Each structure stands twice: as structure tokens, then as C-alpha cells.
Amino acid sequence: MMAGRVTLALVLSVAVTLSAVAVVYTKYQTRTHFSHLQDLRAQRDGLDVEWNRLRLEEAALSTHVRVERKARDQLGMFSPRLDDILLIEEVGRGTP
Fold first, then answer.
1. Whether the Cβ atoms of residue 75 and residue 67 lie closer than 8 Å to each other
2. pLDDT in tens, 62-86
């Protein structure tokens, strides 16, 4: 009967030790994953800031005044003069 108690105590001691090791390992994994999650969140926030900056830059670069100035300066384009406009009417169709 004494041998049975010693065996039971030994088995319970091993189970408690394994359980303690499992708890420590799980805690370590949790901290590692949480740290990785925080890094990913910081990266996401940085990308959000960059995206908003790029959207503002795109809006600034695509304003009508800037596009018109680039067309005039770099491409030599200009608004048509009144003499350059030709109105063509289609014959044979009635006006609505």
C-alpha cells in the first residue's frame, strides 16, 4: 500500500511539473505573439499616415490650376481663341 502512495505521489509530481512547464511556455508564447501584434499595429499606423500623406499630395498635384499651368509651360498648350473655334451645324435634322 505504501508503494501505491509513492507511485501516486510520483505521478502527481510529474503531472504538476509538466503542467507548470506548459503554463510557462504558454505565457511565453502569449507575450511573443502580443509583441508581434504591437509591431504589426505600429506598422499599420505608419502605413495609414503614409497613405493619408499620399492622398493629400495627389490632391495638391491634381488641382485644375496646377494642371493648366503645366499644360501651358511644359506642353505649350493654350485655351483656344475665339477665332480658333469653329461651330459646325448638322443639316437635315430639326431642332428639338
1. no
2. 898 988 999 999 999 988 888 889 8
